Structures are given as structure tokens and as C-alpha cells.
Amino acid sequence: MTLVREWSYDGTELAWLQAGLIGTMDEGHVVAELVPDGFEAYLRVFHRFEASDGSGRTRSWRGWAGDSGVRFHGELSHWSLPDEGRHEGATPLWLAQSGQLDQCTERALVRVLGEVTGDGRPVSFAYDLEALLWGADAPVVRRSSVYGLDEVRKEVAAELGSLQGPEFWWPTDRSWVVTSDCDLLSTYIGCSAETAERILANREIEALPVAPQTRVDWYSDRLNPNLMRATNRT
């Protein structure tokens, strides 16, 4: 998870959000570094795995954990899931996209947030570190309805290049925030308890409740063996 920033947020549309985040922890990274404080509920939304063999197969985190005898919980690391294709020099069979939700999950989340926010209310989509890496002078923020996410991506891609993200989305009333850090395989959300219930009830979204101090890094899982440590891989 990348947290180094090389520009000031003063006067930018991300200033309010950055002001609500805590600094880097001494050991590991937590939700509060990604999602501002003050929300009733926090969620982890898992990016679905896709098979790297071209078969089009997908796999949920819960399903893979269940198949492997691994505990499914809010701090589960992908390095706790034993991939039959993972060995020295090989491409893992199951891969999840970092920094962006898979299409199925994203479409479902957009529908839920659209019902909560309303089609006509503006939503801000922000590229932060991704914009910095592509040479922007400040965070890149575009506004649309929540249903305009794909068009925002096309517009930003035409301007800066094909980026992951956006890293943050939020409506004008700041009643929820979606954060997809470019290094992580899950997206984190701060929202109301009612919105959290809607997201958790949607069968197309694999999500769990978390807390501001829930770990998010690759070594986050303290309930299952971490295969990265076991194989001494970095």
C-alpha cells in the first residue's frame, strides 16, 4: 500500500478527505489511513478473483477460503489462500485486480449507491496518487452521477492515460466514501449503517464489516498462516 504523497492538498477537492485520515502506522496499515473518520459503518469489499488460464472462471474470497479450510474474516490476506498454481516462477492461477473493483462487483455497488444517493446528485471521482504518477500537477477530480463512472474513466484516460481507480468517490453530502488504493485487492467504504446494510445484503457484492483499526496490508491476517512468510516471498 503506497502512502507517500508529494503534493499539498490545500485548496484541492481532496483536502476534506485527507484531513480525516490518520498517518502511517508503525506496524501495518489500517482502514483509517484510507477512509476518513466519522462514519457509522465501514466495509471491506473484496475484488473477485479471475483465473489466469483464460477460462473466464471467477472465484470469491469466501468460496476459496471455504475450499481451503481458511477462516474468512475482515483481515483476510490473499497470501493466506493456497493457490494451486502458485510456485516459484509461475503465474498464480487466481488473480484479483488491485486498485479497482471487478466489473460485476462494481456494477452492483454503483446500483446500490445510486439508490441511496439518487441519479441526479453529483458524485466526485478523484485520482490522487495515480494522477501524481502520471504527471498531473494536482489531484484529478471529475463530477458525474454515480452511474457516470465509466464515462469518467474514459475522459481521464484520454487526458492522462489508462489509470486504475478512481481512488476515491463521494457524493456532495459526503454521506459515503469509496476508496480503492492502488496497491490493494479490496475496496474500503465509509457510510451510514443503513447503506452498509444495503451493500451487505447484495449477493453480487462480497463484503464484510470492518473497523477503522482493521488491518488492510498483505500481512494483515493474524488468524491464518501467511504463505508469503512461509515461502519467504516478497
Description:
With 234 residues, this protein is α+β, with helices and mostly antiparallel strands. The protein has helices at residues 15-19, 61-68, 103-117, 129-133, 149-160, 193-201, 227-231; strands at residues 41-46, 49-51, 58-59, 94-95, 123-127, 140-144, 168-171, 177-179, 186-191, 207-210. The strands form 2 sheets. It has a 7-stranded antiparallel sheet.
Tell me the total number of β-strands.
10
Radius of gyration equals 17 Å
What is the averaged pLDDT score?
Answer: 89
Strand order of the largest sheet: 6-5-7-8-9-1-10
The major sheet is characterized as: 7 strands, antiparallel
- Total number of distinct structural domains: 1
Approximate shape? globular
Proportion of helical residues: 25-40%
Q: In what range is the share of β-strand residues?
A: 15-25%
Intertermini distance: 13 Å
